[in-house]
Write a structure and sequence with these properties.
By secondary structure, this protein is α+β, with helices and mostly antiparallel strands. The chain is 24% helix and 30% strand. The strands form 3 sheets. A 7-stranded mixed sheet has the order 5-13-6-7-10-9-12. Strands 1-2-4-3 form a 4-stranded antiparallel sheet, covered by helices on one side. A two-stranded antiparallel ribbon has the order 8-11. A hairpin with a 4-residue loop joins β1 and β2 (10-14).
């Protein structure tokens, strides 16, 4: 584990490439309630600690090191939240189903079934507000990103990028292969917690029809 500057008002705690290690480091730093720390944010293999002021840098650095040196408190592991995400895999929404089908030698229906059968965990949330990076994608569905990213991807688009799958919460550029769309709002500023998903959540995709998609939107 190493700690490095992240600008003049943040620190980056690098940990191993393990979701459990990232989540435990995040929990320990949040429980420490270090004065001067504004936010603790988990990423794929690191945890970012944002400070209220550059003046808090040295004090927070020492406090972070002290917090992480303390023996971990043995507690029963809490089961992750399970979030079900309805997805319509129709060709209308699955803009890259034919590309993924050609690369995997599976039919669009087989791709949808394989994708929805798998169990996923949220590794981190980023890129755009509420965008979840999900691990657990079956190896057979792993496909390279598009050579030319789209300038705009519709909100709710479910996509594959390499060995991961994700969901675009907002209209944004994107280079992942789109295989479906969810009617759920992944990011909504009117909610107490705007992002629907957070690091550590378990996710299950549920295939729905076009008619069910329309009813969800209403």
């Amino acid at each position: 584990m190493t700690i490095a500057p992240l600008g003049d008002s943040a620190l980056l705690v690098r940990v191993g490439d393990s979701l459990g290690e990232v989540l435990e480091t995040t929990r320990r730093l949040r429980r420490a309630r270090i004065p001067g720390v504004e936010e603790v944010v988990p990423a794929f293999a690191s945890v970012s600690v944002f400070l209220k002021s550059p003046l808090d840098y040295e004090h927070c650095l020492a406090s972070i090191r002290a917090a992480l040196r303390r023996p971990a408190i043995s507690r029963p592991a809490e089961p992750p939240r399970l979030i079900e995400i309805p997805v319509c895999y129709d060709a209308e929404f699955g803009l890259d189903l034919t590309v993924v089908a050609k690369q995997t030698r599976l039919s669009p229906n087989e791709i949808a079934c394989c994708h929805a059968r798998a169990k996923y965990r949220v590794r981190c949330v980023g890129f755009t507000p509420g965008f979840p990076y999900l691990e657990g994608l079956p190896r057979i569905l792993a496909t390279p990103r598009r050579a030319s990213p789209r300038t705009s991807v519709a909100p709710g688009s479910v996509a594959i990028g390499g060995r991961q799958t994700g969901i675009y919460p907002l209209a944004s550029p994107g280079g992942w292969n789109i295989i479906g769309r969810t009617p759920l709002r992944l990011f909504d500023l009117t909610r107490d917690h705007p992002a629907l998903l957070r690091a550590g959540d378990a996710v299950r995709f549920v295939a729905i029809t076009r008619e069910e998609f329309e009813r969800w939107e209403k």
